[in-house]
């Protein structure tokens, strides 16, 4: 990284980053330690020092006790101005303990009022399509739809055509049979046999 002005570094995006000197950090820690000792001699104890004292004492105890004591301190201790001002957040939902009997009555009331689940628009449309298709198939089977009527008319025409074709074939078969008989008689007559 290229070095900029005043102990600051410039990264590749042109942003400045400053780093604290470790010597300065050590000096600051020493000043804080002296201030704590001075307050301890005068009898003044701050909340941060109490926490540090608690941590030192708690290090001798077991891990489980440490966790429970730190949780209690976090719950009991207000952060910042919270301890001084009562603030109620309207967006915070506080869960209240309900009795089992009231829950059972609420569930029974909701179950009796809404037996059908609410369907979305798409689900309702899909159900309507399925019902309409089933209804159409039923009417089509009975022959009450336009398509069914057209199909029945076509079938009637085809039946008539097939009947006519069958009659024509039967007549043709009879004619062929008669001709075959005449031909047989003619050949037998030609041969001189009696019929």
Uncertain parts:
60-67
What about the largest sheet? 2 strands, antiparallel
Q: Reading side by side through the largest sheet, how are the strands ordered?
A: 1-2
Supply the number of helical segments.
Answer: 6
Taken from the alpha-carbon principal axes, the silhouette is: elongated
Q: Give Rg in angstroms.
A: 52 Å
Q: What is the helix content?
A: 55-70%
C-alpha end-to-end distance: 130 Å
Mean pLDDT over all positions: 78
Number of strands: 2
Helix/sheet category: mainly alpha
Fraction of residues in β-strands: under 5%
**H/E element order:** EEHHHHHH
Biased composition (Acidic residues): 61-75
Biased composition (Basic and acidic residues): 27-44, 166-182
Protein name: 28 kDa heat- and acid-stable phosphoprotein
Biased composition (Basic residues): 183-195
SSE diagram, text form:
Blueprint: E1 8-10, E2 16-18, H1 22-42, H2 47-58, H3 63-76, H4 100-113, H5 121-142, H6 146-191
Antiparallel strand pairs: 1-2
Please give a structural write-up.
With 195 residues, this protein is mainly α. The chain is built from six helices and two strands. The protein has a two-stranded antiparallel ribbon with strand order 1-2. The N and C termini lie far apart (130 Å). About 4% of the residues have low confidence.
